[in-house]
Write a structure and sequence with these properties.
This protein is of the alpha/beta class. The chain is built from 13 helices and 18 strands. About 45% of the residues are buried. Bound molecules: adenosine-5'-diphosphate (ADP), aspartic acid (ASP) and magnesium ion.
Length: about 425
């Protein structure tokens, strides 16, 4: 018996006509000896609407993703997880209408268990003891993505975009041959095809590169889903949900590096506007200061990314610059302010209109001059670099957010990624 997991994102299930097409795609994958599980997202716009309701009930303005305090986050999860449940029922009906046996499974019926971290929970276990045999008997199992139940039997959610992670986790638990992620683009591109018309679809991309691409801003797959696929060696294919069954739909295979014959120096360009820069001027320069600053930020669950330290003009002082997600910047500044006595910082500045642009490629490991190409391309467009971070397979720069698209396009051209 083989098993296949298919996942459909929000736009792909955006209305009942699209859900009917999803049903046709699922039906076409059925064959004797293969069990199918389908993981679905909420209909497009639905999660945003539910987040808005939760925030309004909590008396919060704006439309950020998470309720700020811990006071209501348990109920936030109850509210925002409801969107996916609706889609499971709608798809089950659509499948049965075309003669395919199907049923919805809610997370507690499987169960899919997670830790207790509301709004960004991690899946602990998925039982296949009820689900697996039902699928193997030919009934398509439809599962809501993005959610689980916590240790106290309460609803949890996995963070925005979390249905990808649900799908990969289900595939791993079921020992599926592959996890197919159907979305509104026909694969993983060299960069976001919405901002670079000349972006090209990749036939294959390694787990390592996809992990960097996702964590550096390419939202086509949630970062955690790639981590999980990498760790569990689940082959993942990204493909279009808008193609009728029977038509060509090759997509992109996310797979191990060994399966990629021609390793590109740079395979992709990613960007993130969800960045803020915090600059600390005149910090005391002695052992333990960095530990104090970054220890406190970690305790406050603030995700620090780039860090640059330099000598200040005054003797015995240094300047430290770091980046964090935009919405965490005010809290980061407060946290540092509270530590002022210990670290002796003279000035704290926050800049929120910055963006991070990154180039990613496994071929970088064995190639020189990759950074030079990047810096020269940006210089030619007059774009100033405010911070740099590198790893074995990526280079990231922090720039003024106003130049994000210009920078992404310039780099895409500079590394020869533009389609003819
Ligand atoms: P879904 O609702 O199916 O989960 P998402 O909106 O989360 O879909 O992800 C798909 C989107 O990711 C695309 O519409 C595209 O704009 C964006 N994207 C960003 N970077 C890339 C990339 N490198 N390749 C493909 N899509 C990308
Ligand atoms: N519906 C959730 C969201 O919009 C999860 C997902 O679509 O992956 O974030
Ligand atoms: Mg998504």
């Amino acid at each position: 018996m083989s098993r296949l997991v298919m996942k459909f994102g929000g736009t792909s299930v955006g209305d009942v006509e699209r859900i009917a097409r999803v049903a046709r795609i699922v039906a076409a994958e059925r064959k004797a000896g293969r069990g199918i599980a389908v993981v679905v997202s909420a209909m497009s716009g639905e999660t945003d609407r539910l987040v808005g309701l939760a925030r309004a009930a909590a008396g919060e303005g704006g439309n950020g993703a998470v309720i700020a305090g811990k006071e209501f986050d348990d109920e936030y999860d109850v509210i925002v997880s409801s969107g996916e449940q609706v889609t499971t029922g709608l798809l089950a009906i659509a499948l049965r209408r075309i003669g395919v046996p199907a049923r919805s499974w809610q997370n507690w019926q499987i169960p899919i268990r997670s830790d207790a971290t509301h709004s960004k929970a991690r899946i602990d276990s998925i039982s296949e003891s009820a689900l697996g045999p039902a699928m193997d008997a030919g009934e398509v199992a439809i599962i809501p993505g993005f959610q689980a139940i916590g240790p106290d039997n309460r609803e949890t959610t996995l963070g925005r975009g979390g249905s990808d992670t649900s799908a990969v986790a289900v595939a791993a638990a079921l020992g599926a041959e592959r996890c197919d992620i159907y979305t509104d683009v026909d694969g993983v591109y060299t960069t976001d095809p919405r901002i670079v018309a000349k972006a090209q679809r990749l036939e294959k991309i390694s787990y390592e590169e996809m992990l960097e691409m996702a964590s550096l801003g390419a939202k086509v797959l949630q970062t955690r889903s790639v981590e999980l696929a990498f760790a569990q060696r689940v082959p993942v294919r990204v493909l279009s949900s808008f193609v009728e069954p029977g038509q060509p739909n090759p997509g992109t295979l996310v797979c191990s590096e060994e399966e990629i014959v021609e390793k590109q120096v740079v395979s992709g360009v990613a960007y993130s506007r969800d960045e803020a820069k915090v600059t600390l001027l005149g910090v005391e320069d002695h052992p333990g200061v960095a530990a104090e600053i970054f220890g406190r930020l970690a305790e406050a669950s603030i995700n620090v990314d780039m860090i640059v330290q330099s000598e200040a003009r005054q003797p015995g002082r240094q300047n430290i610059l770091f980046t964090c997600p935009d919405r965490e910047a005010p809290r980061a500044a407060e946290t540092i302010e509270a530590a002022k006595g210990k670290i002796g910082v003279e000035e704290i500045h926050i800049r929120r209109d910055v963006a991070k642009v990154s180039v990613i490629g496994i071929g970088m490991r064995s190639q020189v001059g990759v950074a030079r190409t990047m810096f020269a391309a940006l210089a030619q467009k007059g774009i100033n670099i405010e911070a740099i971070a590198t790893s074995e397979i990526k280079i990231s720069v922090l720039i003024d957010a106003a130049y994000t698209e210009l920078a992404v396009r310039a780099l895409h051209t500079a590394y020869g990624l533009d389609a003819a």
